[in-house]
């Protein structure tokens, strides 16, 4: 039975390359045409494969509907939380998870620092969109015309001398973040707080969330915090892999 399931599932990536006839499917699987036909008929009955009028088979609409439904029901916070806790245990600093929703970037999870100095950020609270590292990652992933339109609409409060001052500077920063694949906020919102962040990507490669590690200068310097960037990026990659289905979840 497991061999039958394996063969049936092997048909799907073949058809993802384009329509194929019965002979091509049989050849790829290394089975007789009668076996390939039985597998195709079963997949067709479930809507996962569609037979065209030219007797070629392609992926069925049901497969795309299932994929879309699965994506809509994914909870990035639920997937990410254990990874955020593990990162916090490794570095000791505050860890955030944020998403872009309706023109705001919101924190949706937070793991507190183990140090006495705590950050005022709260789950559900919007971030300072023109300076926050997580916001830069989420907005940098937007198409260029959307980035430009958004940049022109935003206000640019000067929280500190390092705050982003205007749309042109913001767009330059987003382009830099887009190219390097990570972001920082080194005293842009609060002089004494530094932050490094990395993106979480879905199966299509788009950024679905961003995670960060933040710490005050009295605990670590900006340069010391930047040494954690490889660890932050590995954590984000692990969440991305689990969220997109590229890697299995670790046993609980």
From TrEMBL:
Domain IclR-ED: 62-245
Chain ranges of the HTH iclR-type domain: 2-61
Keyword list, A-Z: DNA-binding, Transcription, Transcription regulation
Gene3D superfamilies: 3.30.450.40, Winged helix-like DNA-binding domain superfamily/Winged helix DNA-binding domain (1.10.10.10)
Top-rank taxon, per record: Bacteria
SMART domains named among the record's database cross-references: HTH_ICLR
Chain ranges passing through the membrane: none
UniProt xrefs under Pfam families: HTH_IclR (PF09339), IclR_C (PF01614)
PANTHER family with a match to the protein in the record: HELIX-TURN-HELIX TRANSCRIPTIONAL REGULATOR, ICLR FAMILY, HTH-TYPE TRANSCRIPTIONAL REPRESSOR ALLR
Protein name: IclR family transcriptional regulator
Native organism taxonomy: Bacteria, Bacillati, Actinomycetota, Actinomycetes, Kitasatosporales
